[in-house]
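Thread: quick sanity check before group meeting

JM: Hey all, I'm pulling together slides for Thursday and realized we never actually wrote out the predicted structure for the chain we discussed last week. Dropping the sequence here so it's in one place. If anyone has concerns about the input, flag it before I start.
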Amino acid sequence: MKYLIGIDVGTSGTKTALFDENGEKMASHTAEYPLYQPKNGYAEQNPFDWWQATCEGLQKVVEKSGIDKNDIAGIGLSGQMHGLVMLDENGEVLRKSIIWCDQRTAKECEEITERCGLDTLMRITASPALTGFTASKILWVRNNEPDIYAKCKHILLPKDYIRYMLTGEFATDVSDASGMQLLDIAKRNWSQEILDLLDIPAEWLGKVYESCEVSGTINENGSKATGIPVGVPVVGGAGDNAAAAVGCGVVRDGRAFTTIGTSGVVFAHTSEMSVDPQGRCHTFCTAVPGAWHVMGVTQAAGLSLKWYKDNFCDTELAEAEAAGKNVYALLDEKAAEIPIGCDRLIYMPYLMGERTPHLDPNARGIFFGLSAMHTRAHLLRAVMEGVTFSLKDCLSLFGGLGVKVDSMMACGGGGSSALWRQMLADIFGCTVKQCVSNEGGALGAAILAGVGAGLYPSVEEACDKIISVKGEQPADAANTSRYAQFYEIYSNLYDTVKPFCAKLALL
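JM (edit): ok, ran it. Output follows.
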């Protein structure tokens, strides 16, 4: 029996999972690390924390599973997209990584648009200049930390830093590179035109691979740190959402998934490249060679619920601990007691600005309709509904791009909640399915490793063999009608408060 490992470098922690060649999980381990927010709107992490978490995870899964590590056929990488990792000529990290949800680069986005022109950006990168993307972060360091910028010789994404530490290779894959704003999305390689316009040296960027191609092998240093044998192949891997798509079988036209992790995503596979001319949703290369995906992103999905739990749910935390229950399961029970619409209370989940459909780093969260009758449970359910309304905003854009959705999967931490899955079904107005495996990006990365190692002939055939559904929740027509009344109000609130968010940002 051969084994595969998927490493998913997330925002709250790195998950390492080991699977057999049939996709059965043998062991997994998650190691957490901090997020640094030195200023309002800033978000950074230490790349060495990711590496320590990876080393710990690889050692633990081999130990827990009891397998012969010489039977490991390949490793796949997945991870949070857009994060900027800058290395010097010796491969040493120059500063903390500015990660995906950081919003400091509004001026740099203006600079990118001035240098390149919006038409050129859309033609080549399929996106307007966005604060979350890597290119604006590079320019921010150049503009604000010139001493660090002068020492830079290599730029990597979070998961690709792990690849470098494992293999010594400077490389990335097409899906993750799509979120840097430096890739020609149609040609699936770096755009020399964009690099020249932004004055970013091409030699700073690694080689671009398809997600299932072998990008390198474990070297002596990687083996010494992790215990994985020298020579084990490491494939290109994928950005977190592209890997999650493989992990739930969204690898053919008509298939889509919604994930509620720290951020929230609605993602649909397409064999034809289709771009929103306004840039409200993303068109990226996907992990299936020669294919793309469209994706809408809610910046603070599960993050909204975690923020609420951490700040307002001490009672529930104590109650869950005393009862030996998962606190999120207890919060589901509390939220389920509140009616649809939370007795006329609506939440806007813009804690970290917003991408789809507003593209506004200044957007901020709001509870609208608060009255003296509302309890903490009302606010809790409003958070869950508001996140789901934001995901509805994403899905609503796909039809105009000619991307048809016939099947919707639910993934991520929020996808494990029956209450939240029913909200998705009712607000989307469609049946929502759940995978047997909840390993998401780690499983997707492992599947890609299996294709690269020759265990499966293609990504699609690997998913046919491994991925299965364990249940589905149809929409309740009466609930869909009721939610639509609140969604109409929700969808008009942003335009009303937008100018005030901009003014607030200047204070």
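AS: nice. The first strand starts at residue 3 and ends at 9. The first helix runs from residue 47 to 65.
JM: adding both to the slides.
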